Amino acid sequence: MNRFSLRTLIATSLLAATAAASAASFPVASGEFSAADVAASNTAQPVRAARATTTEGRTRAEVRAELEAARCRGELPFDGETGRTYRDVFPDRYPLPGCR
Predict the structure, then answer these.
(1) How many domains does the chain have?
(2) Which of 29, 99, 42, 38 is nearest to 71 (CA)?
(3) Which of 26, 42, 82, 95 makes a 20 to 30 Å CA pair with 52?
(4) Does residue 96 lie within any of the structural domains?
(5) Would residue 78 count as lying in a domain?
(6) Torsion angles phi and psi, residue 57, rounded to 5
(7) CB burial class (10 A; 0-12, 13-18, 19+) of residue 4?
(8) Residue 85: beta bridge partners?
(9) Residue 87's domain spans which residues?
(10) What is the Cα–Cα distance from 92 to 18, expressed in whole angstroms?
(11) Is residue 77 part of a domain?
(12) What is the reported pTM?
């Protein structure tokens, strides 16, 4: 076998191995799935997929109302390091006057 045909054989083998590896059904990285993987999962388990899309949550207005109530009571974090709230740091200021 001459050098040219050996190089061609090695290059072809490497390309085939690379193509086979990229066509594998494993995620690219931890937690990453292609759209084909998700679609295959949804068709294989339609009940589970339907249940996942019908979850109900709170509306924006409800979340904003909860945030405002927590602010009025001083329950928001004062700093992100100690876990203390505004009420812990300034106990004489809370609850704020005029809050529900």
Answers:
(1) 1
(2) 99
(3) 26
(4) yes
(5) yes
(6) -130, -170
(7) exposed
(8) 77
(9) 72-100
(10) 67
(11) yes
(12) 0.43
